Amino acid sequence: MRLGLVLTEAANGLRRNASMVVSVVLVTFISLTFVGTAVLMQMQIGQMKDYWYDRAQVAVYMCTDISGSSNENCVGGEANEEQLAAIQAELEGPTLSPFIKKFYFEDHDQAYENFQKQFKDNPVSAYVTPDQLNQTYWVNLKDVSQADVLVESLSALPGVEAVTDQRSYLDQIFAVLNAASFTAIAIAAIMLVAAALLIATTIRLSAYSRRRELGIMRLVGASNRFIQTPFVLEGIFAALIGSLLAGGAIWAIVHFFIQGWLKDRLQLTSFVTEGSALVVAPILLLVGIVLAAFSANFAITRYLKV
Question: 10 in the Ramachandran plot: left (φ > 0), alpha (ψ -120 to 50) or beta?
Fold first, then answer.
């Protein structure tokens, strides 16, 4: 097979079907951008889990005057000094201390100050008083997966309103993020199917427009492989451009949006970097080439059998 002749035929096909090639490039670009975004979201979720789960705390909320009689630990009203001392003794004792990295106590005034900072633009902040907020022991564990040990040990003690593992809140957030990621994956899958169909249609139209040439090539003994290769290369070339554009778009999203804008406004977490985009880009390139090669080869093979 003469490589120069094959490449010339492929270039002629691209020139004759420029509008269809542009369509393939655009559909491939959009579909692979969705794929890359979904991959980035999964990488971001994984990075956020590593970052936040290591910092997740167990909160031991002490009773207040408004805790109510429904909680049997709070029938005496606000937790007194003896009950606070008992909780601290448990945290420092031989049973729980091996699991604890560090802990600190937050009284009413500190809780109120933190509440005002967190909800400074919320009207509810004007109606909250310090005595309404729980005094709390905040506990950092050596292994966050062992939070149940603290929950079981402290929940039933007098003066304890509730013991909460912050990972339960994080799980809800990550569930929403995962749902968004899976939605992006579903859209990407639909777009990839559309790209494959468009590539196949483009190749069949290209072959039909050159049906006389193909007939002559068959008459002179050209092999099916020789006839098919230029068409497959047309599809690969169009998809390659779309893949490169998608890789560039993913890098731009990370560089300008995540690192350039979002990172400065949300400084309490860790974000994916341009290095992550450079990992995703080759994946998109490979997916685009394989998709185009398979679709184009299938289309031209079916056409030649007709």
Answer: alpha
Query: In 3-state terms, what secondary structure has residue 267?
Result: coil
Interstrand relation of 160-165 and 100-106 (parallel, antiparallel or unpaired): unpaired
pTM above 0.90?
Answer: no
Q: Are 305 and 293 in contact (CB under 8 A)?
A: no
pLDDT tens-digit series, residues 157-186:
999 999 998 888 788 888 888 888 888 888
**What pLDDT is recorded for position 243?**
93
pLDDT tens by residue, 105-133: 999 999 999 888 877 777 777 888 898 89
Structure token pair of residue 60: 């031991």
Q: What residues contact residue 144 under an 8 Å CB cut-off, 6+ apart?
A: 53, 54, 56, 167
What DSSP line would sit under 174-196, residue for residue?
Answer: HHHHHHHHHHHHHHHHHHHHHHH
Joined together, the tokens standing for residue 57 give 């705390």
Distances (CA, A) of 54 to 57, 61, 141, 152, 170: 9, 21, 9, 21, 12
Q: What's the token pair of residue 68?
A: 């109510």
> Burial of 289 by CB count in 10 Å (0-12 exposed, 13-18 middle, 19+ buried)?
middle
| Model pLDDT, residue 139 | 93
Backbone angles phi, psi at 104, to 5 degrees: -145, 160
CB 61 within 8 A of CB 161: yes
